[in-house]
Amino acid sequence: MDELDKKILMVLQEDARLSYTKIAKRVGTSTATVSERVRKLQESDIIKGYSVVLNSSKIGITTLITMICVKPSFDVAEIGETIAELKETCCVHNITGDFDLIVSFKCFSPTEREECTSIINKINRIDGIERVNTYMVLNTIKEESQIGL
After folding, report:
1. Are 11 and 79 part of one and the same domain?
2. What integer pLDDT is reported at residue 116 of this predicted model?
């Protein structure tokens, strides 16, 4: 990945709806070059997809952060994969420290406690989990998906 690829990625992160022609003008190259570069970035899985970024608080979504400690005889990565398969799961990270995994879940409104409780119960039923601490996010100060290149 060279500097031109990075410039194209920065523009796409700002607005993935832009045409290749507009991207080409912004980065100073041809439309054909942008098209070819984007194709290669997709094929190499650097660009994983395109999506809409929602404002969770405006549509009544609550974020749960769960810290998970895995029993010593179990495979952390395998348990992480199991958790990643849950439809409510947003991200799963293997971490250092007192816990093995940190997981972010989304559920509708905190008044829908049944949904939040259901997620926690699903986690607690996974074989190999020793301890779970779950926190409800009260206010998101910053949530950014763009990566500075």
Report:
1. no
2. 81
